[in-house]
Each structure stands twice: as C-alpha cells, then as structure tokens.
Amino acid sequence: MKEISGGVCAPKGFMAGGIWCGVKANSQKRDLALIYSEKNCAAAAMFTANRVKAASIIVTQEHIGRGKLHAIIANSGNANACTGEAGLASARRMAELAADEFAISPRDVAVASTGVIGVPLPIAAIENSIGALANSLRGDEAGHAAALEAIMTTDTRKKEVSVEIEINGVPVRIGGMAKGSGMIHPNMATMLCFLTTDAAIPRELLEKSLRRATALSFNRLSVDGDTSTNDMAIILANGASGAPAIAEESAEYGIFAAALEACCVKLARALARDGEGATKLVTVTVCGAHDEQTAETLAKAVAASSLVKAACFGADANWGRVLCAMGYSGAEFDPGLTGVRFRSLAGEIAVCKSGQPVGFSEEDAKKILSEEEIEILIDVNSGDAAVDGTATVWGCDLTYDYVKINGDYRT
Amino acid sequence: MKEISGGVCAPKGFMAGGIWCGVKANSQKRDLALIYSEKNCAAAAMFTANRVKAASIIVTQEHIGRGKLHAIIANSGNANACTGEAGLASARRMAELAADEFAISPRDVAVASTGVIGVPLPIAAIENSIGALANSLRGDEAGHAAALEAIMTTDTRKKEVSVEIEINGVPVRIGGMAKGSGMIHPNMATMLCFLTTDAAIPRELLEKSLRRATALSFNRLSVDGDTSTNDMAIILANGASGAPAIAEESAEYGIFAAALEACCVKLARALARDGEGATKLVTVTVCGAHDEQTAETLAKAVAASSLVKAACFGADANWGRVLCAMGYSGAEFDPGLTGVRFRSLAGEIAVCKSGQPVGFSEEDAKKILSEEEIEILIDVNSGDAAVDGTATVWGCDLTYDYVKINGDYRT
Asked: Whole-prediction pTM value?
C-alpha cells in the first residue's frame, strides 16, 4: 500500500466539486459539496447511533437500502436536524436536485448535512445553485479539495487520504475525506466521511470492510463525549480500476480491508487532532486486558475524561486521573496490577507500576507531555498471555478554546 | 422543618474541629478535620462506585460494617489513593490515632481523604498533630466551620446545612457539611459529605433514608463526568435529642427521611454551583418520561454534555444540543414529541415544541441564560399520564477556569 494524492478523486471515474450557495449566511465559505461517479456504485454506509437523527440520515438510510449509490450531495452550515417534516422534505429535495442534474434516480443519491441543529434548512439557496454545483465537478485533486472545503464547519485542518494497492496485479485506489471537530465521540461524531474506491467489490463485502474499519477508527475516537445527530461514513465502489472483482474471504479482500482500515484510522487520527480547540493528539492504548472489548472500554474512558484531557493540555503527568477514569469505566481490571507510561517524540516515562507511584522526573514528564502528539500506554497485566486484549483510542486535550468555540457557536 | 445554624454541631452531643497539620505542604490552610459524638452512634454510609478505591474507602467500609461510629477523621490535600499497602496502613493509622485520643475502638472511627491521587500520605504530619486536633473540638458553629474548612480543596464556597424537625413533639436536628468541586459525577464525586443527627433511629432505617436521599441528590449531580476514587457520605445518629426512637414506616420516619433528603439536595445544589470554574448552577428537569429511571438518564445526559455546559456558559440557547444529548443517552423517548424550555429569575422561554424549533427572542433567551441559576425544563410527553416519570439533576457550566484549574492541579 502506498499513499498517493487526489483524495476522493484518486480512484478512477470519480469527480468532486464544491461551491458557496448561501447556507452559510455569515461568510462566503464553500457550503455545498458533490461527489459523483461516472458509473453507479456498490455502496455501504454507517450512521449515528443517536436516537435523534437528522433528516439527511433518515433519507440516506432509505436510499442505501438498495446497496447502490451514484452520488453524494452534502451541505455544511446547517445540520437539518430537529426540523420536522419540512426538514425531511428538504433532504429529499437535495437528492432530487442532484439526481436531476445527471438524470439518475434520487434513490441513488446520498444526502449529508452538518452545522447548527434546529434551524430550518434554506433549501432555496441549494435549489438556486445546483447547476453551479454540477458545473464545479472535476476529476482531479482540485475537485476533491473544493468538496472537502465545502463540508467543513469549525474544522481547522483538512482531513483527507488516498492510497493505492494492487489487486491481482492491477492498481486499485481508495480515497477519502472527513469533516468534524466538535460533538465527536465513539459511535460516530458530527463526522462526515466520504470514501471512494475504484475496486470492484460486491456490496456485502464493502459493507463488511467498512463496518470493521469504522469500529477500529471512528468508533474509537473521542473529542467531547457528545455523539452527533448527523454522523455518517459512506463508501462508493465503482469498479473502474479494471481489477477483477474481490471475492469473499480471498487474499484480495484482506488487502482491500486492511487498506480501508488504514485510510479510516488516518482520518480518525486527523479528526482527533483537530478536535475543537485541541492543541494535542492523545493516543490511549490499553493492553493486557481480558479481551479487546474490555481494553476498548478502558481506553475510551481515559480518552474521554475531562480531567485527563485537561491534564494533557497542562502537560501534567497526573496519572491518578488515568486510573480513576479506568475505575469508573465499568470494565473489569485490577488497579493493583496496572502500569501507566507516557510517551512522545521527546521520550518515554513510567509513572505507575502495579497501581502505585513510581519515582519519576517531573521535568522529563513535562517535556514528554508538551509534544503535539502524546501517548498514554496502559498495561492492565491481567496475566493470561493467551487473551491479550488490546485497543487503541484517539482523543485530544481540553483547552480554553474548546470552551470558547462552544460557548457561542450559533452567533 | 426549619433551617437553623450550627452545621454538624447543630444536633446535640456533637463536636467538631479542624487544624492545619501540614498535609497541604504549600499553604497553611486547614487540612485535618474531626467530628466526634459524645455517645457512640448508629451510622450509615454510601461509597464511590469507582473500581479504584482510596485506602480511606476500604478502611471505612470495614468499620461501618458494624453499623456504629463514634468519630470521623478526615484530611484534605492528599487522596491516599493508588498508594498500595503503605496507604492502607496510613488510613488504619488515622483511625487508631483518633481512637486513642478518646479511648474508643478504632473500628468506631471513619476515615476520609481528599486531594491528589498517587502520592504517599505524609502520615507523620497527622501523628504529630492528633493532640492539637482533639483539642480543637468545639460543640458550636465555630467547631463546624473549622472542620468544614479542613476538608476543602479547590472548593470556593462552603457547603453546609442544618435543619430542625419535630419527632413526637421533641425537636430533632440534622446537620451536614460537604466538600467537592471537581471530579463530580453521578454515583458520587470527590465528594465528602458528613451528616450528624441527634435523632434516635436504628441503623437499618438510617441506612435506608441515606440511600434514598443520596439517590435523589448526590447521585443526580454532575460537574465533569469523572467519578472519584474517594467519595463517601456518612451519617451519624446519636439519639441525644431525647425524642423517641423512630420506628419503621412510621410517620416520624417519613418526616426524618424527608428532612434528610432536603439536607442532601441543598448540599448537592451547592456542590454543583461550586463546580470547578463554574459560573452557573444548571438544573435539568425531565418530565413525562415512561418512568423515573428514564427521566433521570435523560436529564443526566443533558447535564453532563460538554456542549450543553459550554452553551450555558455562553448564555447560548442552543437547544439542539439538549435534544442531541438526550438522543445518545440510550434512554427511550420520542424526539418528535419533546418540548424544551429555559427558565431563570429573568423569565421563561419555550425554544422547542414537538422536537421542532419555536420562534423565540434571542435577546430574551440570552437574558434568561445569563442568570446565575438556570433551569432546562424538558417534557418528553410520552403521553401516559399515569406513568409520569420525572427527575431533576444538577450541574454547572463549562468554563475557561475549569480547564485552567485542571490543567495544572498538582503544581
């Protein structure tokens, strides 16, 4: 697998574009994006677990039922959530507008929205600009970049990926973009993730690989413990690479699934690093647990703890908060056997062994925790080497700016 | 029931005191407290649900097993948690030291600690000052105040209560103090709560009334989602009022239990209001749910949401975040039937009806949310009037100061 450029336009046969249509009323930043495949695609998607679902989620869940998609239309600046029947009609209208441009079925269009909740979507702005949106489509990196810009809200960095693998000797590409920085928590965030591939892969395998990749990436991500109403991750596979179709449980499936997982992990790490107000990417790894689920629960509790996050911001080696968070996670472990280390480019330091303090240099710890990417490494030593449950979760620090951004988001 | 003064010394036969012994090494603020009853007491206690338990929790859980206590010794400045066998020995030593002063059994002494985790407790400081601590005991409000000061850490306000009721025509008093401002979350916080009463009440009823009062107060409290390793609420009943013993299911039991609940709710509200960095008390009430548990789960998710808390700080009527938090709580409700109102001394405003936006004046909303005490009122309208599940939860806003306080707590 090698990294390449191009984002969602890296795979053959995909185009993307983005414009400003006016949903973002206070700026002229791009707010309407389109991703389009020349051929209809096998498609799979994962959605928010929130009981309150945006209109776009409801509509796209209906459309994905057939396992096919031709295009994705997405707006930023308005979540179209808690907007009732009118909101649902607007989401359907978005699919129709895109479909009409290409003479395809509205049911082959996915709809996504992100932004403020509970404000009616100004659908007229989208209606008026649909032609310009279709005209903005390009099959190169600039098309990808315009679409990516158009789905960003409080994001400060672009989250994108593209890789190339070989399937039976034929180059196959996967590209992706993601947005999201607040309201991010396991089980999907105000996170939109659009992935494309020119692999030929049946819908069932596409869904299987996306489900696994999501579980190991976006669902192991925590910025602020809030799970959004609008999250979705979609993948479109158009088969345009010319590579043979990927068969179930084949070596080729393994190659594809591993590449997709790597793409999603890269995007998840980028989402965590760009958490609202974040200054640091915090990676928490738990090993030695009874099983993977236990390790994940423990790691998530640590990554989501406001006190741990604030300590990371302050570069304070306050490992007691790490154990404390594990203690209330509900997962089983023995605090008396647990060890904690902090690691970054500046070095590595053990701060707790067998649940008790280890003498360490506060100065060294400060240096390690002052880096932009820090790791909290936890070994719960449950002892049975045969069942070494391990999981890695990504989060970020809690900062003044998080409070500032979220104290007055709407105005 | 009437409010009186005196705190834990308001009930007859109780004394309290507090001194500085040096556990708080960087200041000369009081750090060692004692509460003592002239007679041995019926006693009950509730403890943290955290799997990582401080040494004081382990020791006090052992001691309370007999349902009797004579005294409580507590230190601030060091949590004596994650400190292994040495920590456990120190906690036992604290009980012994207090017991020796009064020639009582160490098993009749409760031990409590609060402060930084993972640092050995400097037990010598406590040993050297135990005589001075015993000498500081007083049966009046000054004794209560000294003890209360000695259990405070980042607290900025005193949390105290004392009330008088009548049992069969005889005045009976309940007094209490609490500390805690960070690491506060349902299922107990770094919260210490010491309650005294001169009621004559058997241990079983005392425990029953404390369990219920705790469930409706401290367990409905959220500051930062972190559940501490050290939390406990203890009540001592010495019978010194001279009132007849309270019998099971009697009217007198009802009066006592209601008064105890009122005391705990007052302390819980004070704890929320003094949440680390908090500028506002946020009260969340959910009604119309299928049952009380559902209402509580929904209300807790709202009170604990970082996004809702940041919006309260910014006086931003962002009700979409309220619905969003309810949506990921896991509790059952229909977003399409849900109404949300904001209320404070400045007025009341409906912002959402049937899950959809209601036109409202942003200016009015800002005024309402700028008060020091604000209420979020949620009616999920599940419709069956016969099962109107209602619950109230207390929290606070998320501010710059929370991040500041917790970014560098140890230094």
From this structure: 0.79
